[in-house]
Amino acid sequence: MIGRGAGVAAAKPPAATEICRALYRLAKPRIVAAIALSGATALTVAAQRPPHFSKLLPCLLALLCTGAASAMINCVVEADRDLKMGRLAQRNEALAVAGPRLILGVAAALLTAGVAIAAGFLGPAPTLLLCGGVFGYTVCYTLFLKPQTPWAAVLGGLPGAFPVLVGGSASGNPPGLGVLILFLILMLWQPPHFWLLALSHRNDYHAALLPVLPIARSIDATRRAILTWVALLTGATLLLPATGYASACYGTMALVAGASFWGCCYWSLLGKGPLRFAFRCSVMYLLILFAAIIVDICFIPR
Known about the structure:
80% of the residues lie in helices and 0% in strands. It has helices spanning 2-10, 16-26, 29-47, 53-77, 79-82, 89-98, 100-121, 124-145, 152-155, 157-160, 162-169, 177-200, 202-207, 213-216, 219-237, 239-242, 248-269, 275-299.
């Protein structure tokens, strides 16, 4: 009887709060927040003024819902590979707590809500771009590119930058040059960001049989690629003031931020600091850049 009681206790289902916490973790909230911010930045660039609340709010909600849905689907699809990666222990635990069926159900509901919001408040073009971004990330990148090529981070930058096109088209006009420059910026940011992570956890990626650049090529090749891409990224950020979509004040900020990011990467890649530090600098750099663009357009006269 004692053994049976112990078995029943061990099989006790998780509490609702545990399931909610697990779903929140699987939604990758920090990544999703960055996705929403990129859309808001693109909407600001397209409007060249503070975006109207009637466009900004549905744009943010649509990107938050579909971004969280894509993250959850990604976690379920990559569950077998993720189990081999020590850095994803908490994500694997969350997947076990919530269960694939519930996760996919919540993801479907969020995806439906996001598409419905876009269709109802933003129009057909942003809705199609939203769907294209979700399909590109969950199917093209996750299922085909990531397991097959070390350049998946470059090719996967296309769906990763689609939120910019969603935000830009939410203004009611086709994405202009400023939005396309922002799209290029986000595409160029994603590869070095991922390669820094791959360098930090290359043993995990090796165990998961994923041909990331440090494994498929070499560590030195990855270091050179990171520094090259960050330099290209810094140059791309200066296209906004060069084309009149931002001021010289923003240009100075972008140049300083880009040089600082490049310096952080160089310092870490030389072994003088942890690679995770450069990875965190990458996230901070993107947030600073988006904030600088929004502040420049909304508050600095030109």
